[in-house]
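DM from R.C. (forwarded with permission)

"hey, sorry to bug you on a friday — could you get me a structure for this? deadline for the figure draft is monday and I only need the backbone to look sensible"
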Amino acid sequence: MIKSLGVSLTAVVAGALFALASIAGFAGEPGATGIVQSIVKAPVVADGDVTGKPFDYVINLDGSLDPQVLGRGIAANGTIKIFMPPEFDLGNLDPAFPVGTPPVFGPIPCVPGNLQCTTLVLLRGWPQDPLFPPFLFHSLSVDVPNNALVITAVKDIGLMSGVDRAPYIKQIHLILNGLTNPAPGKYRMRIEAETGRDGTLETGEGLIVVRRKTQPSVNVTSVFVDALAAGNCGPGKLPPNPNNPIYQTTSVGQDAPYVWTFLLWGKNNKPLDSVSLRKVKRNVWQLVKYNDDDSDSDSDSDSDRRGRRILGHVRISAPRGARHQDIRQIECPSLLPFAPVIANTPGVGPQPVGRLDLQFTAGNKAGLYKTVLSLKNGNHVEMVVTANAQ
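My reply, with the result:
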């Protein structure tokens, strides 16, 4: 088991800038059209989709998040325009969070661990490895009359070998700290992107869902991948983080190269810490927490006769006839006082969060192993490991 030995919480706080969408592969959500697959709460905060809280969402573009599948490219000076619904008034941004493309240093910094800005980043499809640093790839401006965010490429992205790293643009993380979510409801967002062949215009729409309160969520992070590979729990690492924990390859009967780390929140912004893994049958585990004084930290869960509160489940889909595939829990701190990424940004963070670290072992058959972690009344994430014959 990996144990914490002098983990630097300050370094963990500054451990990452950007995040990934909630699931590794996703179907188009209801209301999504064109190049938009879905719009989901960003996994780096508990309440990015809650009324009265700062706007923090990820736009998932159409296509697979598999890193072997290329995303979208754009030519220098090409634009991606995100037209916000009128209820999200970009002409009334909080001046305490000016528009900026990180990293920006100065009296109002927009840097890892202290994002005092209204910004966005282009993601390549897994956590904490964006096109980095963002200002070398794009600029950000606001078209107030059209209530639109305008991304302008400062060089070719995905069009010439060596200019940037594949798989190019798959997601857009909107970190709009200067914008407060309106009343609960569903709001339509539109995108116009010069990302088609020869710079032709591609369009799409999706629904922004604003909730009354925080929902339970399980969220992937790659902040701790390098530390865990080195045999310790932390600290976290600044981007870029090229090691993809969501899509991995190993040999039959062997561990996946990277340990999975998840950030966990329950209702009302409560961190879900001290979560345990309990096997209930072949390929199925429960995520459980034993009753304690913090009785409302996950009130959406059920309790069994032994006082275990069942938070959710972990299920493996394995190749036909595969046996001995397994998941085991790694002993790392289960509560982080500051969630990685936002840290102590005034008015936004810090937010304490639960941490769960799991090691996957492939079974005795070559093929695709998909593991889904789901929380009751919350979201789910999918992790993919390909096992090759030895």
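R.C.: lifesaver. Residues 55 and 379 are 18 Å apart (CA to CA).
me: no worries. Residues 9-13 form the longest helix (5 residues).
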